[in-house]
Amino acid sequence: MNIETVKTASRFSIPIKIILAGIVSALGGSGYIGFLSEYATYFYALSNGFRIPAEGSPYLKVTIASISFSVMLLCAIIYMMFYFIVKINLSSNKWVNKIQKKTIDSLQLKSKTPKSIHWLYNTSQKTMGIAGALVVAFISSIVIAILPYFSVSKEIPIPIHLFLFCVSFTYFICTSLPLIDKKYLTAACVFTTLFYLISTPLFLFNDNVYGTILKEIKYGGGTRVTIYLEDKKGINTELLLRTSDSIFITERDDKVSEIPLEKINKITY
């Protein structure tokens, strides 16, 4: 086994560690995503006009486990995709530079062109620092993300802005990769992966996104249910959130009511 093989294998140890971290955090229910999930529940409650469920919600562990593993798996895939994109870009850039150099040497332009042309040629061969590439990508992404705000309809959900920011950031990083020095290959991949790892869970703080998650696991988000109380009377309503002690439902006048679980005989979905 040569040194290059060892180096390549060591780079892929990062996505493996990311996946293992996702499994551990999913089983433990703690960590960055677990912390955000709890406060996302509080934010969802305040946005829908009912009290903060400080007693906790039983579905949180399930949600944290699934989201943690999904996000970690996504980040591992992103790392590997970026690694291969960088390698392809660097290889193609090296090949183009070799052809360009041979062409210039064969035409003997170095002795017949002005100094300004020499300066432009030499500048184009220099690599860009990773910090410069990240700053350019970050600023450009912010500009693209806020452009929809100036459209005719300004009622654009926050996830759209975040999605545009993430996609444009990725695009600018990919387009600038051929200009980045090869020694920053792993650093660029790791930084982009961390960027997605930190930013993706922030989507939980949007009502539509969090409500959709609750609706999928039948713990709220406007799920249509029929609640049977102690008097056997059925109530057709929308379930906003279920906690350890009570449920929150919407009334006909769009007001939110809280019903303790001990007063409920049955819930049908």
UniProtKB/TrEMBL annotation:
Query: Does the record's keyword annotation contain Membrane?
Result: yes
Record protein name field: Uncharacterized protein
Which species is this UniProt entry from? Serratia nevei
Q: What are the alphabetically sorted keywords of the record?
A: Membrane, Transmembrane, Transmembrane helix
Listed transmembrane segments: 20-44, 64-86, 130-150, 156-177, 184-205
